[in-house]
Amino acid sequence: MFSCYAPTLEASKEKKDQFYKQLNTAVNATPSEHQLFVLGDFNTRVCVDHDIWRGVLWRNGVGKQNLNGIRLLVFCAVQKLAATNTVFQQSNKLKTTWMHPRSGHWHLIDYVITRQRNLRNVRLTRAIRATTVWSDHHLV
């Protein structure tokens, strides 16, 4: 299991390249017979277009993708990984994890990612709205 924090949309291409290179190394170092879970704030929005990203995204995504989203989707497609947040049908308030500070809109930017073949072992991925601490992120 890996926990990570990806560079934001405003970060340099070099920082993003370095992050994905390190993540690629970590994923490749995990034996194929082991279950793999990558949890993190990927600072990315993926789309709802599960037809194009078959196996990576499922029918229950949220919103539009950004440039960081394309990078994450390509990485997942190459590594045969799936974003479990898009698998389960539930309301958006149980999927979205971050509130944009200016618009106040909620987006899905924190993901639980696993190998596509291990999806059967995931029972539910959802955002938890804490009642004791305010944050612009919800736990997944």
TrEMBL record:
Matching InterPro entries: Endo/exonu/phosph_ase_sf (IPR036691), Swc5/CFDP1/2 (IPR027124)
Domain of life: Eukaryota
Record-annotated membrane-spanning stretches: none
Signal peptide (UniProt feature, chain positions): none
UniProt xrefs under PANTHER family: BUCENTAUR RELATED (PTHR23227), CRANIOFACIAL DEVELOPMENT PROTEIN 2 (PTHR23227:SF85)
The name this protein goes by in its record: Endonuclease/exonuclease/phosphatase domain-containing protein
Species per Swiss-Prot/TrEMBL record: Helobdella robusta (Californian leech)
Lineage of the organism: Eukaryota, Metazoa, Spiralia, Lophotrochozoa, Annelida
Gene designation: 20196743
